[in-house]
Design goal:
alpha/beta, Rossmann fold, 3 domains, 9-stranded mixed β-sheet, 19 helices
């Protein structure tokens, strides 16, 4: 490609901003070749390593979806390339998804980047002449895109328009601070731990590993405050599975002003004032915008293989989660590790029941009589034949085989009252899960005792304190947290959750090294 006058002008200008990262979002069947041409011009200016285009940047043998998500989350500028067929393709995908649900990754990338907490500057770029692009034609989750001043790339003014776009990107780079702030992880919690609880010590590791490896008698409870799966802007540590973040997003969307954002209260307000459909639509947009597995999810997905290499007989865990998103299941899917899934159905034909989904998209089994259902892979001795994931508050819209669910959330105050108080726990939770919980030690990750719905659930399961010594881990707990957990016979430890599972993995590796010695 020859050097045009426009290129000469910006080549002679100041050096390209160091480290500025640009992500190109586009639809292959809309402007595939145009995206590659733009990539070449941007790579000339900013360096190929700093410009991401899937067709040019993905390397053979990598997980393409994970790589795209990682680059998107760590970019500074996202260019949304919009050609003449962009809107029609999106609408066609939406209609097709009614029969066969499938993710529209172009749309999900934009929804993620448009959120204020992403820290990403989005520039819509209209590629071509007279490109149709009006807010009324866009779904609600993308209408913010139409409020951003769009750049243009027109065939007759190609060099001039690209030079102008490059100048816009450079202006954004000049707005950025000269030095990067200290990274913030897990919603503002750094590796600092509070004085209210001790850090995990040798005694703690021995007790937890005994239940993991030797006894197979540890149940994992995963809450909404787990760390995200990849680096990003400073606020990226707060994942959208975090109940406080969901509450804050709902409050912004519906103009709710509260000093403390409690998700059940905010969701109740939206439900009463706007209706179920508005609440569920917003939740679906929030929960599908980002569900990348984090270090806790990946540790658990790799755990059966790790225990197999340790020659441990007890390789599988019961994992109970109050989260709606698919981060945990995605981590297991990517590892190729089979699992049974039990989801509480808050709506639909099986409302009020759990539905059991065996691995490999087997026939779904509604659990009509929880007190007699014995199809989960949990033996009479409480040992598991496979990992079992139980989603006790429902799940974001999804599909397993031919079974679909929508608007499936236990999220408002009324939902929790109906769910937790109207019937005996034995008529709700499958007996195999209930017995396993009552006979096991528990490890709580990603919770605080401010999650009152968790406290109610624990009280109904154990009718007071847990029967076996259990543990909870929080990044920076206070005295109140410690007292709350102590009332339930749970020892509280202070640790960053990503560091915690990293140390746990190291303890398992040390056990393997010790077992390998002659």
């Amino acid at each position: 490609m020859g050097t045009t006058p426009s290129e000469s002008q910006y080549r002679e200008a100041d050096a390209a901003p160091a480290g500025l990262r640009v992500f190109i979002n586009y639809r292959h069947h809309d402007i595939g070749l145009g995206a590659q041409l733009l990539y070449e011009r941007l790579a000339d200016r900013f360096g190929g390593e700093n410009v991401f285009l899937d067709a040019r940047s993905l390397q053979p043998g990598v997980n393409w979806l994970e790589s795209i998500k990682s680059h998107r989350a760590s970019c500074d500028v996202l260019l949304a390339l919009i050609g003449p067929r962009w809107i029609s393709i999106m609408k066609d995908r939406d209609h097709a998804a009614l029969a066969t649900p499938a993710d529209d990754y172009v749309r999900l990338e934009l929804q993620y980047a448009l959120k204020a907490e992403s820290g990403i500057r989005v520039i819509p770029v209209l590629v071509g002449d007279d490109v149709p692009f009006v807010a009324e034609a866009l779904p609600m989750s993308l209408r913010a895109l139409a409020r951003i001043e769009a750049a243009q790339v027109r065939p007759k003014l190609l060099d001039q328009d690209i030079a102008h776009l490059i100048s816009q990107i450079e202006a954004i780079a000049r707005e950025q601070p000269s030095s990067d702030p200290e990274p913030v992880r897990n919603g503002g919690n750094t590796n600092k731990v509070g004085a209210a609880a001790p850090q995990p010590d040798a005694t703690h590791w021995d007790l937890v590993l005994k239940q993991f490896v030797n006894e197979g008698n540890l149940v994992l409870f995963l809450g909404p405050r787990l760390p995200t799966g990849h680096p990003g802007p400073p606020d990226a540590g707060r994942r959208l599975g975090d109940s406080e973040e969901i509450a804050a997003s709902l409050a912004r969307r519906f103009g709710i002003e509260r000093s403390r954002l409690d998700l059940p209260q905010v969701a109740q307000y939206v439900y009463v004032t706007m209706g179920r459909s508005d609440l569920c639509r917003e939740l679906r947009q929030l929960l599908t915008a980002e569900c990348e597995p984090g270090p806790v999810h990946r540790f658990l997905a790799r755990l059966p293989g790790t225990l197999k290499r340790l020659h441990a007989d007890n390789r599988y865990q019961l994992i109970v989660t109050t989260n709606f998103d698919r981060s945990l299941e995605q981590a297991f899917d990517e590892e190729g590790e089979p699992y049974d899934l039990a989801v509480y159905m808050a709506s639909g034909r099986d409302q009020g029941k759990f539905v059991h989904f065996p691995p490999d998209e087997g026939v779904p089994k509604p659990i009509a009589d929880p007190n007699s259902y014995t199809e989960l892979p949990i033996g009479l001795d409480y040992e598991l034949e496979r990992t079992v994931i139980v989603k006790i508050h429902g799940a974001v819209d999804g599909k397993v085989g031919n079974y679909r669910w929508r608007e499936n959330y236990v999220v408002t105050e009324d939902h929790y009252i109906d769910y937790l108080s109207k019937s005996p726990i034995e008529s709700l939770v499958p007996v195999q899960v209930l017995d396993k919980l009552r006979e096991s030690h528990c490890l709580f990750l990603g919770y605080t005792m401010r999650d009152w719905n968790l406290r109610v659930f624990l009280k109904r399961i154990w009718e007071g304190s847990l029967g076996a010594r259990s543990w909870a881990v929080e990044p920076d707990p206070d005295i109140l947290e410690k007292d709350f957990w102590a009332q339930s016979n749970v020892d509280l430890y202070a640790a960053d959750l990503a560091d915690y599972v990293g140390q746990l993995q190291g303890q398992l590796a040390a056990r393997k090294l010790a077992s390998d010695k002659p």
